[in-house]
Amino acid sequence: MGGLWDEIRTALHGVWQRRWIAMAVAWGVCLAGWLVVSQIPNQYESRARIFVQLRQILPGEGIATQQEQQKDIDRVRTTLASATNLEKVVRGTDLANTVATDRDVADRVAGLQKKIKITAQQDNLFEITATADNGKLSRTIVQKLIDIFVEDNLGTIRDEASQSLQFLDQQLAQRQKALQEAEAKKADFQDRYLGSLPGTGTLSERLSAARAQLAQVNQELAAAQSGLAAVNGQMAGTSATVAGPGGGGGVAGPARARLSAIQGQLTEARARGWTDSHPDVIALKSQLSAAQGAAKREPVYSGGGGGASANPLYLSLRAMQADKAAQVAALTNRKAQIEADMGAIDQKIAGDPAAAQEQAEIDRNYQVMKSAYDKLLADREQVKLRSQAAGQADAVKFNVIDPPTAPPSPTAPNRPLLLTGVLIVGLGAGVAVAFGLSQLAGTFPTTARLEKMSGMPVIGSIGEVVTGAQTALRRKRLQMFAAATAGLVVAWVALLGLEMLQRGMSA
Q1: 3-state secondary structure of 251
Q2: Can you state the angle between helices 135-189 and 353-392, rounded to 10 degrees?
Q3: Are 488 and 26 in contact (CB under 8 A)?
Q4: What confidence tens digit (pLDDT) does each residue in 305-353 have?
Q5: Structure pTM?
Q6: Could you please report the per-residue DSSP string of 244-259?
């Protein structure tokens, strides 16, 4: 510890011996540094925050539309500090007064690119920061950037809608032309190959439809033939006449007349194809049993003379027979017509096998073009509707949460800190120079150092004898050194005060 203390004392002694050199270096470094600090221009920073609200205009719009809007906003944000937009800033602010040529504009744009910062925060919140030589200019730059941000986003949305409509109109015109050609080709094929054939659609579709119709007609014909056979059976067991007055027979009473009516209804139901499990047939059978019992109990009154009369039940069955026979004949003719149509289609297919394949290809191309055209038309209407809705109510709304600030004092440079740093560096440089010179000198401040360097013992040392005149001179020089040191500190304090005064005046 004693050796370390001796080294410190030796170093301090060497520096003190060359204190005027140290003071001169400190003054020189401080003056040069303070001059450099004074030449650094003030920088004023203005900030603003914008909130972007994505709104759903049409009920059918979903997440995909909002994602497209978000992508557009992100793209505009990333290109906001582009050279094109910054050139608008230069020409739209007071910076335009400082440019005369395109080279000057390019220099200002390059400088602005380093002084503008756009930060994306959470929930579609964006912060724009700009730095300029004065507070008013920085605020103007930020406001101009906000205007460009809003205009570019709204303009992008409108331009995209207009471009989409333009593109869809072009595609619709092309598809309409192709669709008309397909329709003409389809009509030509219809005239050449299918004009004389029954039905609609392709040959295969027409043949399939004819087969389905034939199956349906066969079912109806079988039912009609069954009904005709049932009517014929009923007529075979029914008398064509009934005994009338004067014929020696009895006169039918109300019960027998009701029985005849129920039997006729039952015969008609079976002619229609109803089975014994049908609800109406079951009800008629129940009524028939009751009517038969009543007819048996009813007395028969003798008539006074006369012949036989026509049986109403037989006449009813005969009318039904005629109706069923006409139905069977009509269905038979329909079956023959369908079979003839199927024969014509089969003959057409056999005569020109490629016709069916050609028609299938024509119809397939037509359906594809028709579907594409309908989809494009629906998309165009959707885009047109969205564009019209956006013209009345903006899909993207911009809210300036924090308007651009006009900073009253510069944010950079931090002159008090820089001035203090220059003072410390100057004092350190003076001490370092004095210490370095003391290490280069060939003197020995202590006997111990002399013994160490020479390797020989030192018998003793003689102290310096200072006269009164020398003491007064040294005191005077010390006062001058203290004044020089105090002058350096006073200069630092004065510069700090001047900086504070300028900031207060600018505020």
Answers
A1: strand
A2: 150
A3: yes
A4: 445 566 677 777 777 777 888 888 888 888 888 887 777 766 666 555 5
A5: 0.46
A6: -TTTTSEEP-HHHHHH
Q: Are 491 and 30 in contact (CB under 8 A)?
A: yes
* Residue type at 300 in one-letter notation: V
Structure tokens at 193: 């190959």
Cis status, amide bond into 457, omega within 30 of 0: no
Using CA of residue 445, residue 451, residue 456, residue 460, what is the dihedral sign? positive
Nearest to 86 by CA among 106, 102, 104: 106
Q: Could you tell me the two tokens for 468? A: 């009164």
Strand-pair category, 116-121 with 396-402: unpaired
3-state helix, strand, coil in the chain (%, to 5): 70, 10, 20
Q: How many CA within 13 A on the CB side of residue 174? A: 8
Nearest residue to 372 via CA among 121, 226, 179: 179
* Distance in angstroms (rounded) separating the CA atoms of residues 362 and 206: 16
Q: What is the pLDDT of residues 167-224, one digit of tens each?
A: 778 888 888 888 888 777 766 666 655 544 555 556 666 777 778 888 888 888 888 8
| Distance from C-alpha of 164 to C-alpha of 383, rounded to nearest angstrom | 7
Report the distance separating Cα 295 and Cα 261, nearest Å.
12
